[in-house]
Amino acid sequence: DVVPREEQAGQHQPRTFTTAKDVDLLFDVLAAEEEAARDVDLELLIEVTRAFEEMGVAHAIGGSVASSAYGFYRTTHDADIVADLQPSHVKELERRLGSSFLFDEERVLSAISKRTQFNLIHLEKAFKVDVYLPRGDRFSRQQLTRRVRIDAPGAPGVKLVFCSVEDLVLEKLRWFRMGGEVPERQWLDVQGVLKMQKPTIDR
Fold first, then answer.
1. C-alpha–C-alpha distance, residues 12 and 78, integer Å
2. Which position among 33, 103, 119, 126 has the lowest Cβ density within 10 Å, counted as fewest Cβ atoms?
3. Residue 79: beta bridge partners?
């Protein structure tokens, strides 16, 4: 049978959470995940960020790892990092990470040239780090100037460099809009961060 156009459109609409009770219930579930699972391999994340730091590459962790640090923990099998890499960094980065991570020099150079992204995938654990080059717009250029060093999620005392909470919210909203406002997790991440950071966030 042909599905009516209205129903087809409805299949792709995000669920809405209109009451405070609905939202609080979802946040309780997300918070419970903090004790249930730790999918981010902090040792590998630290290995990558240490390479950037020692090479003098400005970088900041974003994505789900950052939303877990600022809001409610949620499971994820990868990490997102914005890094202002230059072609001159590639050989040294490969020297530092190439024995542990799948490293494609051509893809890295292409990503740097086009200001897009590339992946670092750990050879044993398949943990993936998505490295994003700053875009050419003003927001992306300024994002790295506002980065902060805070505790990694679930690891008090382990300090890593994250994008600011305000930049995280803006970037999450951008991805949410780009996805047709369908990726429910992006929206929940935003609500979780705003709920936890309400007293201090710059409005």
1. 25
2. 126
3. 129
| pLDDT in the model for residue 185 | 76
Q: What are 123-149's pLDDT values in tens digits?
A: 999 999 999 999 888 888 888 999 999
Handedness of CA 141, 146, 149, 151 (dihedral sign): negative
Residue 187 gets which letter from DSSP?
H
Residue 72 CB-density burial (10 A; 0-12 exposed, 13-18 middle, 19+ buried):
buried
For 25-63, write each residue's pLDDT tens digit: 555 555 544 444 445 688 999 999 999 999 999 999 998
Name the nearest CA neighbour of 80 among 201, 12, 174, 196: 174
In angstroms, rounded to a whole number, what is the distance separating the alpha carbons of residues 32 and 9?
33
> What is the C-alpha to C-alpha distance for residues 194 and 169, in angstroms, rounded to an integer?
8
Phi-psi region of 8 (alpha: psi -120 to 50; beta: other; left: phi over 0): alpha
- Rounded CA-CA distance 191/188 in Å is 5
Instruction: Give the span between the Cα atoms of 48 and 57, in whole angstroms.
Output: 11
**Residue found by looking up tokens 């460099």 in the block:** 161
Cβ atoms 61, 171 nearer than 8 A: no
